[in-house]
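If you are new to this repository, start here. Below is one unmodified record pulled from the training split, so you can see the exact layout before writing a loader.
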Amino acid sequence: MALLKLENLTVSYGAIEALKGISIEVEAGEVVTLVGANGAGKSTTLRTITGLLKPKTGKVLYEGKDISGIPTHHTVDLGICMSPEGRGIFANLTVLENLELGAFRQKDKQKIKADLEKVFHFFPRVKERIKQVAGTLSGGEQQMVAMGRALMARPRLLLLDEPSLGLAPLVVKTIFEAIDAINKDGATILLVEQNANAALNHSNRAYVLETGSIVLSGPSKELAQDPRIREAYLGE
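And here is the target side for that same chain:
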């Protein structure tokens, strides 16, 4: 049974249909990526999984159970966490306070301490900045904090929305190395990413979204060789 399954999902913003009956599966242990241009429906997909948006039709199944439209804080309890597009960090709080907010459901102080150490393992830079006010960090460091905060909730399914957006190439490399390590550590990842090259290089399978519909899907290595993908998303 797939860890996550979207069945014929349709989502609308008023009269505009953002998702037009898409179906996606994510198996436990995989990294699956959604590739597509701006406005294709990638972020809408993640927001629907987390309960921020309610589907008009179709289902979100997690471990076989229908979780369509349940409150977002309950999806966190189930082990689904998102690092949002734009990072959404609390700029006036310290790095440590931002990370601790990710562990707001956790009462065991020893577990929180262990989870912090895990974040520092994935992102050593975050440890160096731990007492700094988060708003003073660079964009790449803020992205690391946002991902670290999601990890503090111990996700089984980690949703990453545009983790490399606006970052320098060297920082993008660091972020994707961390994604590989987080996946090896046991988290299943659903990745939304405009950098199709990096996304396809660091995932098992991919779905290509165009204006709310899935137009292609398959193993990432195969899609990376597809002439249509190379022309549309890899600049060839």
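Two things worth knowing about this chain: The CA atoms of residues 80 and 157 lie 5 Å apart. The longest helix spans residues 169-184.
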